[in-house]
Design goal:
The protein has eight helices and nine strands. The chain is of the alpha/beta class. Helix 1 crosses helix 8.
Length: 231
């Protein structure tokens, strides 16, 4: 039997591509189906809000990976007055912009990130042994969730990150956040559309580089060391 991997917030399957190449069976969870022409999730997909999952259902998993949405983290890291105002309001209970509709407390901001580690704890308790978890997000998440253990270009990692990691310089794109915001748009994201093309560009930009996902998948396929409890 192939080892089972769980991909939370799976999107187009950046994590899953590397996991499949390493020999895992993979089940992805997301709250929407990402299909854009030839681009679609490459494994079994379950449409479910990750917050409603209980880790005990993953007691047979060999590895859990996750990429919680990074939109708010990315935005507040931008050098814009409005972004700085939102970050200050979250940190010091200041005044938010009048048109702001995002998270208004730090627990709300980090809810999806923390859900990944809750699911891991529940899975470990049900399995009776450690199940590694690797969570990916952007550099801008660090002020809110703690320092990352490693970065591969702009892809930052938390949790059970292997000790030996490849160096990367964004070979598959940069998670700059521009396509998620009206204020900025990188050259490879379509400016003329706020519909399917924009969502497709966002999903492609967010994909984990194949070299990174395959390296972590292969490391945990035959783990040589357990790097310790996640932060």
């Amino acid at each position: 039997m192939k080892p089972l991997a769980i991909d939370l917030f799976c999107g187009l399957g950046g994590w899953t591509d590397g996991l499949l190449a390493a020999g895992y069976d993979v089940i992805g969870f997301d709250n929407e189906r990402h299909e854009y022409g030839v681009h679609k999730y490459p494994a079994q997909l379950v449409l479910q809000d990750v917050r409603t999952l209980h880790g005990s259902q993953f007691k047979d998993a060999a590895l859990i990976v996750a990429s919680p949405p990074c939109t708010e983290f990315s935005y507040m890291a931008m050098p814009w007055t409005r972004a700085k105002q939102i970050a200050h309001a979250l940190s010091w209970q200041g005044e938010f912009p009048a048109d702001y509709s995002g998270s208004r407390t730090i627990p709300a901001l980090t809810e999806l990130f923390r859900a990944c580690f809750r699911i891991q704890r529940e899975a470990i308790e049900a399995a009776g042994h450690h199940i590694p978890l690797v969570v990916e997000n952007v550099r801008g998440a660090q002020p809110w969730v703690g320092r990352s253990r490693w970065c591969y270009g702009s892809f930052h990692l938390w949790g059970d990150v292997p000790a030996l990691m490849p160096k990367g310089r964004n070979p598959d794109g940069r998670k700059m956040g521009g396509d998620w915001f009206d204020q900025s748009c990188p050259p490879y994201a379509p400016r003329r559309s706020k519909g399917t093309k924009r969502r497709a560009a966002s999903a492609l930009i967010a994909k984990i580089p194949f070299e990174l996902s395959r390296h972590i998948a292969q490391t945990w396929l035959t783990p040589l060391e357990a790097p310790g409890a996640p932060q």
